[in-house]
Amino acid sequence: MSSSGLLEDLVEALRCLPGVGPKSAQRMALHLLQRDRDAARRLGSTLVDAMDRVHHCEQCRIFTENTLCRWCSDPARVSSQLCIVESPADVLAIDRATDFRGKFFLLLGHLSPLDGIGPKDLGLDLLESRLETGGVDEITLATNPTVEGQATARYIGDIAARHGVTVMQIARGVPVGSELEFADGGTLAVAFSHRTRLS
Amino acid sequence: MSSSGLLEDLVEALRCLPGVGPKSAQRMALHLLQRDRDAARRLGSTLVDAMDRVHHCEQCRIFTENTLCRWCSDPARVSSQLCIVESPADVLAIDRATDFRGKFFLLLGHLSPLDGIGPKDLGLDLLESRLETGGVDEITLATNPTVEGQATARYIGDIAARHGVTVMQIARGVPVGSELEFADGGTLAVAFSHRTRLS
Ligand SMILES: [Zn+2]
Ligand SMILES: [Zn+2]
């Protein structure tokens, strides 16, 4: 890259961002140089800082720069209830949308033997030792409603049951506000077999 | 942002990128933390480096970290021909698509009295002193085919004419490979009035 220079290096470097191709990388680089150098410098140093200092919470694997994340270190949250999710975005979504006030446990993926992702990669040894220690009465499985997510949920449910912990799973069914005719067959089948009495 | 932490700072900082809203900023931050920390560190340091060291070429205002850009410093390019463009992306596009082998001059915008953008903001004093010095025989106006771009081209054409420099303008007309019925009326009118004899 010697002949091309720093602008081209920047365009190339921006392509590490998901969904950013050569054209939008170029547009981003020129925009920052022309209009927003201070914000770009701030982004640059924040990137380096975050990559160096953000790691996983010791208890739940959520990203944090501290030993414990803000959920685990929040004394107002109930430690006896644990919600198990696949991705950090799920934590934020559940925190925003529901009234769950327990703690989380983050898998950062799902079981996938073909990709070599086993229980240890999901931190299930950490989860198991936490269940062993006691203090957790109930776990709620909130993995994705996919084949892999469900297999992972079943696997974790078995571990929890062995430790005498109540196992819950978030409901699957037709999404609120959606139209029935657009629901896929699998969702409809689940919604139908999980039907509840109205009154 | 004390309670939210470094991950949230990173999500916020990513929003300086054009076209990046809160959701994609979050997706980018999590992707980098989970999968590409080295690339993210490299992006971070390249950003800071580029913002600190990239400035405008002394001769043509193209972005470079050197005194002269790679076009101005290329002895293989003809100095007597100058192509005038509005944006850095135009330089790259013309360089890629055409056989123009002269040098460029970058306006970084167009005349816009209402926004307070006058000749000096486009570097036209620099351009004029370059024409005065001599050595430029011909300029090609390649500003955008918009009202503002055309007004800017006319203004620059007048300056060049005063210095006895030949003024060319890139052709306007229907885009190659497009279908006539989808061309807008203005383009069609220009294409028609600029029609040329075929043989
Ligand atoms: Zn935690
Ligand atoms: Zn230059």
Give an overview in words.
Chains A, B: May play a role in DNA repair. It seems to be involved in an RecBC-independent recombinational process of DNA repair. It may act with RecF and RecO. Chains A, B: It holds the Pfam family RecR_ZnF. Chains A, B: InterPro entries: DNA_Rcmb_RecR, Rcmb_RecR, Rcmb_RecR_Znf, TOPRIM_dom, TOPRIM_RecR. Chains A, B: One of its GO terms (molecular function) is DNA binding. Two copies of one chain form a homodimer. Chain A has 199 residues and is α/β, with parallel strands linked by helices. In chain A, the strands form two sheets. In chain A, strands 4-3-5-6 form a four-stranded parallel sheet. A two-stranded antiparallel sheet of chain A has the order 1-2. Chain A is built from seven helices and six strands; from the N terminus they run H-H-H-E-E-E-H-E-H-E-H-E-H. In chain A, 43% of the residues lie in helices and 11% in strands. Chain A folds into two domains: 49 residues, Orthogonal Bundle (Helicase, Ruva Protein, domain 3); 101 residues, Dna Topoisomerase Vi A Subunit, Chain: A, domain 2 (3-Layer(aba) Sandwich), CATH 3.40.1360.10. Chains A and B meet through helix 1, helix 2, helix 3, strand 2 and helix 4 of A and helix 1, helix 2, helix 3, strand 2 and helix 4 of B. The site of one zinc ion has 8 residues of chain A, from loops.
